[in-house]
Amino acid sequence: MMRGHWRGAWGLAAALLGVPALGQLEGPPEGAPQYSCFEAARAGGAVSESIAAQLCQGARSDSPARCFHRVQEAAFLEEPQALQLCQYALPSDDPASCFLKARTSSFLDESELVLLCRPPIAATLNLCPYGP
Q: In angstroms, how far is CA 101 from the centroid of its own chain?
């Protein structure tokens, strides 16, 4: 009986301290694209966990993270605009290339270029912010 008491106490202490339970120490499950995106966004430590989590919410690949890093490095785009441009990006979309090409060949400001080049799903979600 004493043995079960300690196990319960350890679980409570782990929960209070934010330590994962012993069964939860393994990596993310197969097919967790949001997590692979999150890890890619955090690579190098330049992106905060909060921004990485926002960027990768609903991600289907690491495309949002690759886009985000690319526009920050090549265009020095600020975090909020890079987030708006790259969130929900798919491999078939290429908002970073669109932004970089449009930036050199137009007189639009950065906010207009972000609206032009962000993935189509982002515009749809703005119209229906609470879901379909």
A: 23
What radius of gyration do the chain's Cα atoms show? Answer: 20
Three-class SS state of 46: coil
Question: Which tokens belong to 15?
Answer: 């929960």
- Please write the tens of the pLDDT for every residue from 10-25: 444 444 444 444 444 4
Handedness of CA 23, 27, 33, 34 (dihedral sign): positive
Helix (H) or strand (E) holding 110: helix 110-117
pLDDT confidence of 31, banded at 50, 70, 90? low
**DSSP readout, 10-43?**
HHHHHHHHTPPPGGG-S-PPTT-HHHHHHHHHHT
Per domain, the residue ranges of the chain are: 30-127
